[in-house]
């Protein structure tokens, strides 16, 4: 999977000014159709797909960005495009702020794993305020395209056929769990699973010998993320986790272990 190859130059447009979310989605559908890579899928099909996805929940994720996307049966390959709206447009974003950068993804319905990987890669790029500011300020289509490609080029790409390490990530924070899970879901979704868990304290505090050692009831939320990650991505994965929780040496609700694996084979279903 190479996200850079999915970005279509003809689908990148700077300085747009849609009056509302509905018009923004119509312009996105038009840009996607301009790629000429949608097979039998029409502009109207793309628009309906985008609208159906927005009905599930807004893709305006806050901080001035939106990533509308859809999966369609008749689309043969991924099409990624970008639209900048310097003046901002209402997009029903989770933080209520207008959107200035809209990156869209149209992909094959059969490629759910790849869709997750693409979403994860582009969302990491757009999580940078500096990147969003640069893309918003791009003066023309070419500058906008080059800016996006440059930021995506810095994203490391996992590769198959290499040795893997086993990650075990224990967390007692639901917010941290969801953020960290996105890190693994974007790189190794078929090699990642989640287990319910409990800290030993949850059991020890009920044992008479240890009664009274804790004044409050143990944390009820506890999950373990188990993932096989290519060795070349191991340091990057640790860096991304620390980007969420800070230095792991200081973490209070997260424990990460990494183990070398002798043999791995197979994958987990979608």
State the main characteristics.
single chain; 270 residues; alpha/beta; Mannitol-specific EII, Chain A; Alpha-Beta Plaits; 2 domains; 6-stranded mixed sheet; 4-stranded antiparallel sheet; 9 helices; 24% strand
Care to describe what's here?
A hairpin with a 2-residue loop joins strand 2 (60-62) and strand 3 (65-66). The chain has 270 residues and is an alpha/beta fold. The two termini are 17 Å apart. It contains nine helices and ten strands. Strands 1, 2, 3, 4, 5 and 6 form a six-stranded mixed beta sheet that branches. The protein folds into two domains: 3-153, Mannitol-specific EII, Chain A, CATH 3.40.930.10; 164-260, Alpha-Beta Plaits (2-Layer Sandwich). The model has no long low-confidence stretch (mean pLDDT 87). The longest helix is centred in the middle third of the chain and has 15 residues, at 112-126. The radius of gyration is 21 Å and the shape is elongated.
Short description:
With about 270 residues, this protein is α/β, with parallel strands linked by helices. It has helices at about 5, 20-35, 45-55, 110-125, 130-135, 140-155, 175-185, 200-205, 235-245, and strands at about 5-15, 60, 65, 70, 80-90, 100-110, 165-170, 190-195, 225-230, 255-260. Strands 1, 2, 3, 4, 5 and 6 form a six-stranded mixed beta sheet that branches.
Rg, Cα atoms, Å: 21 Å
Mean pLDDT: 87
| Number of structural domains | 2
How would you name the oligomeric state of the polypeptide chains in this document? single chain
CATH class of the largest domain: Alpha Beta
Supply the helix-strand structural class. alpha/beta
């Amino acid at each position: 999977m190479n996200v850079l190859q999915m970005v279509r130059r003809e689908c990148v447009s700077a300085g747009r000014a849609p009056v509302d979310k509905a018009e923004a989605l119509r312009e996105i559908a038009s840009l996607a159709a301009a790629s000429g890579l949608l097979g039998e899928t029409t502009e109207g099909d793309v628009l309906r797909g985008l609208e159906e996805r927005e009905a599930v929940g807004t893709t305006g994720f806050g901080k001035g960005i939106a990533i509308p996307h859809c999966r369609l049966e008749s689309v043969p390959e991924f099409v990624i495009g970008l639209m900048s709206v310097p003046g901002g447009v209402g997009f029903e974003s989770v933080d209520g702020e207008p959107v200035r950068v809209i990156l869209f993804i149209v992909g094959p319905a059969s490629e759910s794993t790849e869709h997750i990987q693409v979403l994860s890669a582009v969302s990491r790029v757009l999580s940078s305020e500096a990147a969003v500011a640069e893309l918003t300020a791009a003066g023309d289509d070419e500058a906008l395209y080059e800016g996006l490609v440059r930021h995506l080029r810095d994203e490391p790409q996992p590769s198959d056929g290499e040795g893997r390490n086993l990650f075990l990530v224990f967390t007692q924070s639901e917010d941290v769990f969801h953020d960290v899970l996105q890190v693994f879901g974007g790189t190794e979704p078929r090699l990642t699973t989640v287990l319910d868990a409990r800290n030993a304290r949850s059991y020890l505090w009920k044992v008479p010998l240890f009664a009274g050692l804790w004044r409050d009831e143990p944390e009820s939320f506890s999950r373990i993320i188990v993932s096989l990650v290519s060795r070349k991505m191991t340091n990057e994965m640790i860096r991304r986790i620390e980007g969420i929780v800070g230095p792991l040496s200081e973490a209070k609700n997260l424990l990460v272990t990494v183990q070398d694996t002798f043999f791995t084979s197979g994958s987990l279903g979608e």
